[in-house]
Amino acid sequence: MNLNISYNWLKEYVKTDLMAHEFAKKLSLSGPSVDRIKKVGANFDKVVVGKMLEISKHPNADKLNVAKIDIGKKEPIQVIFGQMAVLKVGDQLPVAVAPTKLPGGIEILEREMRGVKSQGMCCLDSELGLSDQDKVTFFPAKIKPGTPIAQALELKEDYILDIEVTSNRPDAMSVIGIAREAAAILGDKFLYQEPKGLPPVSPSLGGRSRRSLAMTLKVTVKEPKLCPRYQAAVMTGVKVEPSPLWMQQRLLASGLRPINNLVDITNYILLEFGQPMHVFDYDKLAAAEINVRLAKKGETILALDGKEYELDEKVLIVADGKNPCAVGGIMGGELSGATGITKNVVLEVGNWDPVNIRKTARVLNLHSESSDLYEKGLSPEGTQSALLRAMELVEDLASGQLAGEIIDINNYKHKVKEIKLDTANVSRFLGVTITNSQIKESLDSLGFEVYPVKSRSKRDGSAVLNGVKVPWWRDRDMEGEHDLIEEVARLYGYHNLPTKLMAGDLLSAVIPSEVEKSLNFYWQDKVKDILAGFGLTEIYTYSFISEKQINNCRLNASAHLKISNPLSADFEYLRTSLLPGALQIIIENAGFFSEVKLFDLSNVYLPVKKDDLPLEKTTLLVIVSAKSGKAALNEAKGIFEGLLKRLNISDFKYLKADNAEGVYCPPNSRIIVAEKGIGSISLVEPKVLAAFGVKNDVAFIEVEFEAIASQAKSAPAYHSIPKFPAIELDLSMEVDNVITFTEVANVASDAGAPLVEKVDFLSVYQGDPSQAEAKKLAVNKKALAIRIVYRDLNKTLELAEAQAAHQKIVAALKKGYNIKVR
Q1: What are phi and psi of 252, to 5 degrees?
Q2: Please, which residues have CB within 8 angstroms of residue 521's CB and are 6 or more apart in sequence?
Q3: Would you say domain 2-41+157-186 falls under CATH 3.30.56.10?
Q4: Peptide bond connecting 99 to the previous residue in cis, omega within 30 degrees of 0
Q5: Within 13 Å, how many C-alpha atoms sit on residue 504's CB side?
Q6: Which of 22, 105, 524, 529 is the most exposed place for a label (fewest CB within 10 A)?
Q7: Where exactly are the structural domains of the chain?
Q8: Contact 404, 211 (CB under 8 A)
Q9: What is the pTM of this model?
Q10: Architecture of domain 515-711 in CATH?
Q11: Better pLDDT: 698 or 659
């Protein structure tokens, strides 16, 4: 999780004089890591307050105007502007004086526009980076023309800290949380004070008191386990308008878009306290009711993202007397939200079950900053302070008044978590002596409460057993003594811990399964290095695939394990092959690479039996795309044989695969290593390529990695040099086009055994039918030439013996493949 916050905002809660970069360095050493620092704010070079002196129409352009503007110099400047706003003489607004460059990157130069000179630009707030709205900030007459706008707007130089917060620390996903961390790490004062909220008022409002107005808001929580705490407050007399510039700046710096003062306040609280909340238009709530309940089948909600979502009985919602108003803890509804005419509002803040939030967000495919926080687990204790602070801001920025008591439906009882901490263990685990007073000081600064339980007899009297009370904002991630020791260690400074080599005896034996696991990792690294050295690119693909990808590969979806709660339809099944993901990679990169050589070494998941975990098998995929299938297949085969050679595996062969179907396209072969089938090599079926949109031919090899690793050797096996010479005899034949060299070689090896040492490929010729040599071949035939090496390991082989074996081979080939010797 990442948090972008203003350093100036942070300094409102921690007293520090450090420069931003020094602060970030110290925070990163012992707390959340600061990834980036961006300077913002006062850098508005040559952007000043300008006063409109004259405005006239551009003589050569109907939609342009020409203005004389006073910028505090002896002579006014001339600026051309369009229909950016209804400007009049006397208005004072931001003006960029040429030449300059605005924070957003717009370069302002002095130039002529249709024969009229323009010496600057009248600036919108969006062009200055002050907000994302195309509006103009006007300045009062008391501000003199020529005043830099940074001074006129009272903008201070600031830095935006991009902070990475680990997922177990949602308490640090806020300005106050980071300030608390920083105060403890730096040893500075933590300036946070609990907000006091507002007292309810009772003057009459339309014949009813504001207190009675609040009492008409009926709140019911029907699912207390899913919503442990729900608080609400009615505020009346609000004025909806843009929030002040300082708030907009802080929201924009954190990546949130300003909308209006009410919505901006809830987002501000989200950043300041790390506590999501929502605002309803009170007058839009049917029957003045709020019901936290499970949705009814068929109910829908139009969310604030503009999309309509269909709900089911497992989705927890916030509803009024009739309809859903929000998906609890995730997003509010459009129809009950505050608008420009809203007068009365309900501020609501709740605490929601993290498991239910996670499931709902995935089922609806609806995620938000709120759901991201609630999924990590927030304490119900955090709602009160956030609501009180929001009430203060609504009064200050929207003129709202509290119309009654705060409604608090509390279905939980907070129990302070206590952990025992032995100081002797702290020093033993960290390898450095840390006194009990240092431990207490470190934990106290983080909000823990340390109290002695008993002292143990030690020569130095330093061993103490402490009791530690965990603050409510840390009760989700603190589980035992080891967590407390980690807190002490990081405040002491990991960089201050001594570095020593390990001491002690090495284990005399390693568990066999661990040896096997280590070897497997070794061979994985080895194979990856070899294939990368061959010029292949390694890819990583998702373990989850879609039904569409399965169908495109002409595989059977029922033979895949289906996920019960997929993230989306694109991740609905566990893969049984690496090929669908690789083909997806090829098409996604087709615009950059027309021909590719890729490999993937990952797990596939094979269903074993119903409702059982799948069998995970590590699989190696080599995939090559080229403009011709023959080139792709030869390249893939060469890569694979080169890999086996580097792994010192010589006992392998190819066998023709029968009944090619699905993704495979003839000629496809089974790969045999040590007499065991481990995978296949094939071209991808053209229909599969068309389904993915791949235009080139693609060849692939997919094999079981464990079978390769079990046969791999770190060094080649030793073979003595043969004592007796070999005899080489060539054989040229006419054979059917569909017969492969591998098939011929296998028959030759078997028929000539034990004298055949190896069979080498010499050439193959099919040729152009128009050529004379090709005309000598029968239809659908090819000319194949091989060289057979004969050797007897026990004596000198006679030529007659080799020729006899040669004739056996010819006979076997005639019988098996009806060859014609050339």
Answers
A1: -60, -40
A2: none
A3: yes
A4: yes
A5: 5
A6: 105
A7: 2-41+157-186, 47-152, 204-410, 419-465, 515-711, 727-821
A8: yes
A9: 0.65
A10: 2-Layer Sandwich (3.30)
A11: 698
With pLDDT > 90 as the criterion, what percentage of the chain qualifies?
A: 53
Angle in degrees, CA 602, 608, 613, rounded to 5: 70
Check residue 419 and give left, alpha or beta (phi > 0: left; psi -120 to 50: alpha): beta
Rounded CA gap, 721 and 724, in Å?
A: 9
Residue 212: per-residue pLDDT: 42
Give which of 735, 762, 761 is closest to 817, Cα–Cα.
735
- Name the H helices within 352-422: 354-364, 369-376, 383-398
Closest CA to 246 of 265, 224, 232, 228: 265
What CATH homologous superfamily does 47-152 map to? Nucleic acid-binding proteins (2.40.50.140)
Query: So what's the pLDDT on residue 134?
Result: 77
CATH class of 727-821: alpha beta
Return the CATH superfamily for domain 204-410.
Phenylalanyl-trna Synthetase, Chain B, domain 3 (3.50.40.10)
Residue with token string 């190696």: 620
Chain-centre distance for alpha carbon 390: 32
Return mean pLDDT, the chain.
87
Structure tokens at 552: 């495109």
CB-CB neighbours of 424 under 10 Å: 13
pLDDT in tens, 244-268: 888 888 888 888 888 899 999 999 9
796: left (phi over 0), alpha (psi -120 to 50) or beta: beta
Nearest to 802 by CA among 734, 719, 723, 730: 730
pLDDT at site 726: 94
In three-state form (DSSP H/G/I as H, E/B as E, the rest C), the secondary structure along 52-99 is: EEEEEECCCCCCCEEEEEECCCCCCEEEEECCCCCCCCCCEEEEEECC
The packing angle between helices 245-253 and 261-273, to 10°, is 50
Strand partners, 113: 116
Percent of the chain with pLDDT over 70: 91
- Within a 13 Å sphere around the CA of 197, how many CA atoms are in the beta-carbon half? 19
Contact between 785 and 731 (Cβ < 8 Å): yes
CB of 234 closer than 8 Å to CB of 428:
no
Q: 581: exposed, middle or buried (C-beta count within 10 Å: 0-12, 13-18, 19+)?
A: buried
Encode pLDDT of 150-204 as tens digits: 888 777 778 899 999 998 999 999 999 999 999 999 999 999 999 988 877 654 4
404 confidence band (pLDDT: 50, 70, 90): confident
Q: Do 47-152 and 515-711 fold alike per CATH?
A: no
User: In this predicted structure, what is the pLDDT of residue 774?
Assistant: 54
Residue 511 amino acid letter: I
